[in-house]
Structure formats: C-alpha cells, structure tokens
Amino acid sequence: MAQVGEALTVEVMHASVREHRAIAKAIVDGDGVAAAAAMRAHLERAATLAVASREADVEPPPLSRGAQ
Known about the structure:
This protein has 68 residues and is mainly α. It contains 2 helices and no strands. It is elongated.
C-alpha cells in the first residue's frame, strides 16, 4: 500500500475492506470462481489506483539543452 501514498482515502480503504470481505466470503463458501473473480477485480482496482497515484507524483524530465 505504500506505493499509493495520499490516494489512500477513507473511501478507498472502505472499498478495499469490502473487497477483502467478498474474497473471504467466497473462499469460506467454497466458491472458487467467485473468489477468483473478486480477487481479480480487487487487484485490478488496486493496480489502477497505484498507477494513477504514481503518475500524479512523477515529475517531467528536465528539458535537454537542445530543446531550450
């Protein structure tokens, strides 16, 4: 989670808890298909959040001498 820094809002954390609960419920229920789908959706959302946060923190490279 460290890679998302300031993107970890209360709403994001609540969504993450809901997702983890859905994954755990599917596992406890013995529904591997649902568990896999819930895990995939969770990881995709987390990756999207991490990439967006990372892109927001990246500074553009300095201009080369030829571009000034």
